[in-house]
Task: structure prediction
Amino acid sequence: MLFPEYRARRLRANNAFRKMICETTLTVNDLILPLFTINGKNVKNPIESMPGHFQLSMDNLKKTAREAYDLGIPAVMIFGIPDSKDALGTQAYAQNGVVQRAVKELKNALPDLAVLTDVCLCQYTDHGHCGMVEKNIIDNDSSLDLLARIAISHARAGADMVAPSDMMDGRVAEIREGLDDNGFSQVPIMSYAVKYCSAFYGPFRSAANSAPKFGDRRTYQMDPGNALEAIREATMDVEEGADIIMVKPALSYLDIICRLKDEIDLPIAAYSVSGEYAMIKAAEKMGWIDGTKVMMETLTSIKRAGADMILTYSALDAARLLNT
Ligand code: PBG
Result:
């Protein structure tokens, strides 16, 4: 294919041709909207570093979820901000915890909107780590039972799918067994299987008040340079019974999404995280980029890399555009 016989520009010459050769189409079906919920009434605390996002009490959570549903977004992912924290993260699996109540209400109000829940301890533990702490070490095996308890409590509240984000080894198997033993064999697990130890989570941690009080998450989340390890992590979770494998963050890890799409025969989710959203919003505010175009380009590239679904704080904005 050499110039001048081949001219790449021929098929770019007009809108009709461009539509015909279009390889990647983003749709509303691809989007999952993460939402933060807090106890109280009529609460809508703005999250400064994530413009357009709020800590929402149940009434307002329902409004936003309805908006998502009306736009055709198939699912939301719920994160809870509890009233109190302790060493065992008990509010994470409390029957009347903030997430459990939110899930119940959402499912009552919007039965056809899929409600996914983040299963983790870091928002609920006083030390802010995703597992149990013993002598300043994040202990793997004693965390598993608690993680399973959280997942079961979410399923009991009516969650359609649970998504463990803690990165403890063996938690998918433990959660699968716990769900099955309690009559929830139909509840799928979306595993945050490949979760990097990333500075892109900064805005989320201030939104959810979940930053670790000592040390960092490097003994359980992955180093950014590792790719083979991503395959090992994903394979392990497939074997333990995961239904969907997630890569997180998305934009700096498109190669990982692409590799897993080839290697793993399960649907792949990508989480475009808080820092990715914040960067676009900040540059847009400065007038340095066209935020809307950058958002759509970003989402399209995540899909092109191989993601079957994208968790994104831009879901509402993107859906509005896709629907026009
Ligand atoms: C909890 C959790 C985190 C995110 C999702 N689940 C934070 C973390 O691992 O510190 C980050 C999401 C985002 O940045 O948008 N483990």
In short: The longest helix spans residues 141-157. The radius of gyration is 20 Å. The domain at 25-322 is CATH 3.20.20.70 (TIM Barrel). The chain is about 40% helix and 20% strand.
